[in-house]
Amino acid sequence: MAQVQFRDVTLGYDRHPAVHHLSGEVASGSLLAVVGPNGAGKSTLFRGLAGVLKPLSGSILTGGLDHRDIAYLPQTADIDRSFPISVFDFVGTGLWRFTGFFGGIGKDARDRILRALAAVGLNGFENRSIGTLSGGQMQRMLFARVLLQDAALIVLDEPFNAIDAKTSADLLALVKRWHAEGRTVLAALHDMDLVRANFPDALLLARGPVAWGPTAQVLTPENLQQARRMCEAFDDSAAACAADMPSQAA
Fold first, then answer.
1. What are 86-102's pLDDT values in tens digits?
2. Cα(35)–Cα(204) distance, integer angstroms
3. What b/e readout covers 91-122, taking b as 16+ CB neighbours within 10 angstroms?
4. Does the reported pTM lie above 0.70?
5. End-to-end C-alpha distance for the chain, whole angstroms
6. 3-class SS at 174?
7. Do 153 and 183 touch, CB atoms closer than 8 A?
8. pLDDT digits (tens, 9 = 90+) for 121-161
């Protein structure tokens, strides 16, 4: 059964597309890496999937899930680290699906937040301001919030970017745990060795789909070279257009 369906979807900003005419399905329980050069549209695609960005055309279906059932981990660059909030309170926003925006934090919720922080190795960080965290600690905190969301669909934008090897290994173990629990996980990644070793399926994106399927068949030198050429040739000033290239999504 498909958890996600992209139906000729085009996404972009101010009518300028960043992802062109993507069609395909992500089966429920999949572990899918979305890869591509810088500027390939990975973050734009994930914003559309999370409901942050409305498609310019086409549609994204999520198997009946609403956006509260989708856990979205943005890039840390998208987080305002100057916002005066503690690690405990930030992670607690992962419970909004259950408590509502103005819901109080009772003992059960507090215990869940503390367990999530312990699961990502942030014991003792509850009262720290998020602005004091290192890059790796910030990622651990974001993963703790995803843990609390308990979502069927998890969308991770560059979850291992600019963090140390120990943190990467710990967080990758959480990704594998979510996959083993039957959740659908999509991750935007740039480390091809990590993708080949841990992600069974991949979508190679270059503003449009280049290849989609088993990772070994997608991440060929020929496909990667084609993706680089496609991104280099893309006109950022172009307006939203009709389908001008066949989808290669499987």
1. 999 999 999 987 665 55
2. 5
3. bbebbebeeeeeeeeeeebeebbbebbebbbb
4. yes
5. 15
6. helix
7. yes
8. 999 999 999 999 999 999 999 999 999 999 999 999 999 98
